[in-house]
Amino acid sequence: MNFRTMATAVVFGVAAMTGTSTMATSAPAASKLMISIDPDKDGTADMNEVRAAANALFDRLDRDHDGTLDLKELRGRVSAKDFKAADPDNDGTLTKDEYLSLVTSRFKAADPDNDGTLDAKELKAVAKLLE
């Protein structure tokens, strides 16, 4: 999957969670993501599975290996507004903890039934941060 396709794949919940406009991801893209982050194959992604996928993506995106991601490294996965909100120290980068905090908040917002898991439909809201 190329980065343009990933960028199109659901601004990781911006719309579903914050009410801002985002692009939708296709059902096949969400299904592929679910398969890749659901090691127990129960058809849902729990917080640990989502954080593990986000952790791995952070490491792949951190091309300069400085332990942070800037907007360029995030390649459109986060809007400038959302980036600023996720950067409490305003240093222009997200540490892994800041990134995972963003993922966690998006997960919680994408889990309206509060069952602690995301099905394929709910996962669409977080997909952009995991691919």
The number of distinct helices, counting runs of at least 4 residues, comes to 8
Structural class: mainly alpha
Radius of gyration over all CA atoms, rounded: 13 Å
Tell me the strand percentage band: 5-15%
**What is the typical, i.e. mean, pLDDT?**
79
Q: Portion of residues in helices?
A: 40-55%
The geometry reads as: globular
Short description:
The chain has helices spanning 3-8, 14-18, 27-37, 47-61, 71-74, 80-86, 96-110, 120-123; strands at 45-46, 68-69, 94-95, 117-118.
Describe the 3D structure.
By secondary structure, the protein is mainly alpha-helical. The protein has one domain. Helix content is 51%, strand content 6%. It is built from eight helices and four strands; from the N terminus they run αααβαβααβαβα. It has a two-stranded antiparallel sheet with strand order 1-4. It is globular. The termini are close together.
Spell out the blueprint of helices and strands.
Blueprint: H1 3-8, H2 14-18, H3 27-37, E1 45-46, H4 47-61, E2 68-69, H5 71-74, H6 80-86, E3 94-95, H7 96-110, E4 117-118, H8 120-123
Antiparallel strand pairs: 1-4, 2-3
Helix pairs in contact: 4-7
